[in-house]
Amino acid sequence: MSLTHDSPINIEQIERNFREIAPPLNAAEAILESNRCVYCYDAPCMHACPTHIDVPAFIKKIASGNMTGSARVIFDANPIGATCARVCPVDVLCEGACVEKTLMDKPIEIGRLQRYATDYAMSTGRELFRPRALNGKSAGIIGSGPAGLSCATYLARLGYAVTIYDRRVLPGGLDTYGMAEYKMSQLASVSEAQMVERLGVTFRMNTEIGREVSIDELQSAHDAIFLGIGLGATARLEVPGETLPGVYDALDFIARVKTRDWKSVPLGRIVAVIGAGNTGVDAVTQAKRLGAERVLMIYRRSAREMPAYQYEYELAKKDAIEFWWQTAPIEIIAKPDGSGVAALRCVRMELGEPDAAGLRAVQPVPSSEFDIPCDMVIKALGQQKMRSFLKTVPGIELDPAGRIVVNAETMQTTNPKFFAGGDCVNGGREAVDASQAGKLAAQGIHQALTGERVEFAGARVPFIEKIHGEMPHANPVA
Amino acid sequence: MADLRVNFAGIESPNPFWLASAPPTNMGSMVERAFDAGWGGAVWKTLGEPIINVCSRLASIDHGANRMIGLNNIELITDRPLDVNLREIRECKRRYPKNALIVSLMVESKREAWHEIAKQVEDTGADGVELNFGCPHGMSERGMGSAMGQVPEYTRMVTEWVKEATRLPVIVKLTPNVTSITPPARAAVRGGADALSLINTINSVMGVDLDTMIPYPNVNGMAAHGGYCGPAVKPIALNMVSELARDAEVNVPISGIGGIGTWRDATEFLLLGATTVQVCTAVMHFGYRVVEDMIDGLSNYLDEKGFLSVREIIGRSVGRMTDWGNLDLKYKTVARIDHSLCIQCNLCHIACEDGAHQCIPFTEIKGERFPIVDEQECVGCNLCYLVCPSPGCISMVRVDDGSAPLTWHDLTSKQPKTMTSD
After folding, report:
1. Residue A261 shares a structural domain with residue A360
2. A29 CA: distance to closest CA in chain B (Å)
3. FRET partner for B321 with CA separation of 20 to 30 A, picked from A231, A236, A266, B416?
4. Residues B188-244: pLDDT tens digits?
5. What's the helix, strand, coil split of chain B in %, to 5?
6. The CATH number of the domain where A47 resides is what?
């Protein structure tokens, strides 16, 4: 049942609107594109990838027709390589480095090639890694998002009995519930989680720690525990009217879209999305694609300070989103009967001097209040930290921003039995960053429990050690 | 615009671009379309006794995303009746009197057979004959093609037979499937050949289907070696052409064949001694239309270099080919990297590290890591320059003192004893 009215566009049109924006390469495209790669040595793309996938290696394997080998290179360094192939901000990571460092204005389509290889591996169902024999040790992982899946994969490969606990129905965390539907379907994310399951990892879904299973039970059941819990609910706006019907969290709205049950997704005629981060863009573009007549992005600073990636901004512009810069909501005004939203009352903002981090202060312009008529408000204000949950974990230290303090190499928290990684440690970054954190944590857990040091593919920034210190014969360099 | 006309052993041609004897010259309608497209000449698909072909007949080798950098075939000579071919040759020559029309021949090793077919071709008004002593597959098993070209005595003998029977210029097409190209070439000249054409195709197996494990091309589960041509064979052909161009006993015009796909390829053959060039694979890949850029490119090149006629460049680089022993041992270059053009792909580093002399380490420039050449260690091998994908980034710079050249021959003639091997 829609919120205020039915979408003016039909299901077929909505399906078209939600077609993948980066469709899979066909075989001819993959051959051309993989052969276009110059096969850099110690390549910039590999440096730029947070999981340091050996990109030239997997691309050349596509070119040689060694698809299984290609997928293994990817998943070896990044257990959620299929997800990352779809949702990574490649413009600022691998493909950005390709453009910056090579001859081509048009970078190699690394993301789509990665998808080509990972799709192949997932379609064959062939196991890419053979886990070591069980070592008798057990690890519990809270959260089946990218960090948890990654940590579970590596621990399973090392011979651990791994159990993942997640409060939701489907595994994958934000990969499954939080990615714009035109980037990735739930099927892709869940299929990737199933690869982890095939390594022998147990998934306990619908299981919330502190409710179905207590922290104490968890501690007695496992030798080590990894917190891949991500972040919590969307931050509150703290303005009157926030609890009105018709006011939604962006992540809840996106999760509803992910069901692809289009007509069940709440939708207004005029949708105001508050916040201009990447999640905000996901919200505005999807509201528009569902058929909202007007979609407004409300942000208190200017386009220059917009937290979303440039290419996300471009995407929103293409979807004819209306941008209200330097505009802050002060009240959500109810309809006379209180049944929903009538308008968003805002105030103009003026920008001050940049602070130490370069972010400019903002303050309201006096007497500049005005109303924007709308019938749906989506809050995309960033997620809050899971402070109350973390208080239940003994001995865990948080930094002032509420992030879990860890050893950056081992991801061990201040409670030696607990390790952590992903958004709950970094405050909210990309899936690929969480994947790397899960890898480091698995290494850290293994070292803590067995003393053995292992290093998985891409654990460290690859670097040619041999920078010759002295080169008496070389030409002087400008 | 430069004059592209050439005279090849008495055969006038509006330009040096000929179609080689192959599927593109299978019949009159094809050759006529080729002439309309701009081809200066054509060598008709080899005439001889009727044959039966197999299916399939072609296989190729790709490189990266590039299709067909090499092609091989197990097709035989023409499968059309002789009288049909002769009639069409006559008609074609009548319609295109200014184009060079050559007819390739291959019959069994009998004097009468060669006399007969040579006379029949002369009677059509064609401009010349080309004796196919080159095909390495099929016909060679019947004592023809390369079976002929691999034995200098046979080459000479058959050439003499044909010369007895016709006043047409006789071109002998040589097989590269020999230890040295010189003996069969000299034999053909001694037999009276008016010109040589080379190379014919190279013995080859193109690959194996990894699923069925049947080699290509598959003929009902079996394969046979075939004749290899296409871009990949060009260097082999250039070597053989230049060897004959340098040979004092081979003082007849050469028609260069082998991997010519562009005007650049063709120009290289001309510079190394060919008077005309023959093309097959490029046409089989892209059609007769490729000749347009061959003519245009060659013409622009000649204009830009200030040549009035293509004849001025024929053989111009032959004098630059010599034996290794005559190369200057004191000439010295080193690689230099222009870091403003360096894309930091590090291919030069790894190529030198694993494939050469470990003399491209890294250095830090403005906080970034760049490859740099250790010039004292660099031997000037060119490898880094060859692998670098950034045009102009690596150059080979001459660093010797310019003193008088010294060659291995100089050294060994001055110090014969020290150079004696055990």
Report:
1. yes
2. 10
3. B416
4. 999 999 999 999 999 999 999 999 999 999 999 999 999 999 999 999 999 999 999
5. 35, 20, 40
6. 1.10.1060.10
The answer as to whether A10 is a domain residue is: no
Residue B382 sits in a domain whose CATH number is 3.30.70.20
From the CA atom positions of chain A, what is the Rg in Å?
Answer: 24
- Which amino acid, residue B104? S
pLDDT at A40: 94
Helix axes B263-271, B290-305, angle to 10 degrees: 50
Nearest to A32 among B65, B347, B370 (CB): B65
ipTM score assigned to the predicted complex: 0.89
A33 and A142 share one domain = no
Number of domains in chain B: 2
Helix axes A278-290, A250-257, angle to 10 degrees: 50
- How far apart CA A286 and CA B237 sit, in angstroms, is 62
**Residue B393, domain extent:** 325-398
Please choose, from the candidates B5, B9, B90, the residue with its C-alpha nearest in 3D space to the C-alpha of residue B40. B5
Q: For A213, how many CA atoms within 13 A lie in the half-sphere containing its CB?
A: 21
Token pair for A405: 């303090």
For the whole model, what pTM was predicted? 0.91
Q: What is the pLDDT of residue A465?
A: 53
Question: Residue A350 forms beta bridges with which residues?
Answer: A363
**Residue B412 covered by a domain:** no
Report which residue type is found at A152: A
The answer to whether A79 and A149 have CB atoms below 8 angstroms apart is: yes
**Rounded distance, CA A199 to CA B27, Å?**
64
Question: A471: distance to nearest CA of chain B, Å?
Answer: 7
Please report whether residue B403 resides in a domain. no
The reported pLDDT for the residue numbered A462 is 67
The answer for residues whose C-beta is within 8 angstroms of residue B220's C-beta and 6 or more apart is none
Q: Looking at residues B331-338, what average pLDDT do you find?
A: 97
Same domain, B348 and B237: no
Q: Count the helix, strand and coil residues of chain A and give each as a percent rounded to the nearest 5.
A: 35, 15, 45
* Cross-chain Cβ contact B363/A35 below 8 Å: no
Compute the mean pLDDT over every residue in chain A, rounded to the nearest whole number.
93
Same domain assignment for residues B92 and B230: yes
* Residue B278 domain-assigned (yes or no): yes
Distance from CA of B327 to the nearest CA of A (A): 27
Q: Are residues A373 and A256 in the same domain?
A: yes
pLDDT (mean) for A357-371: 91
Is B343 touching A (CB cutoff 8 A)? yes
Looking at the structure, do residues B252 and B134 belong to the same domain, yes or no?
yes
For residue B375, the chain A residues in CB contact (below 8 A) are: 473-475
Asked whether residue A287 is assigned to any structural domain, the reply reads yes
Per mean pLDDT, which range of A123-137, A281-295, A349-363, B17-31 is the poorest?
A349-363
Query: In this predicted structure, which of A352-366, B170-184, B282-296, B345-359 has the lowest mean pLDDT?
Result: A352-366
Classify residue B69 by its DSSP letter.
E
Q: Over 70: is that where the pLDDT of B415 sits?
A: no
Q: How confident is the model at residue A2 (pLDDT cuts 50, 70, 90)?
A: very low
Q: What angle do CA A219, A224, A226 make, to 5 degrees?
A: 100
Residue A468 is predicted with a pLDDT of 47
Q: How many folded domains does chain A comprise?
A: 3
Do A375 and A431 fall within a single domain?
A: no
| Cβ-contact B28, B22 below 8 angstroms | no
Q: Which domain holds residue A399?
A: 138-232+384-450
Distance in angstroms (rounded) separating the CA atoms of residues B35 and B125: 17
Does the beta carbon of B67 lie under 8 angstroms from any beta carbon of chain A? Answer: no
Rounded Cα gap, residues B77 and B371, in angstroms: 55
Name the closest residue on chain B to residue A476, using Cα atoms: B372
Mean pLDDT score, A51-55: 97
B158 shares its domain with B267: yes
DSSP of B330-350, one letter per residue?
Answer: T--EEEEE-TTT-----HHHH
Work out the pLDDT band at A26, boundaries 50, 70, 90.
very high
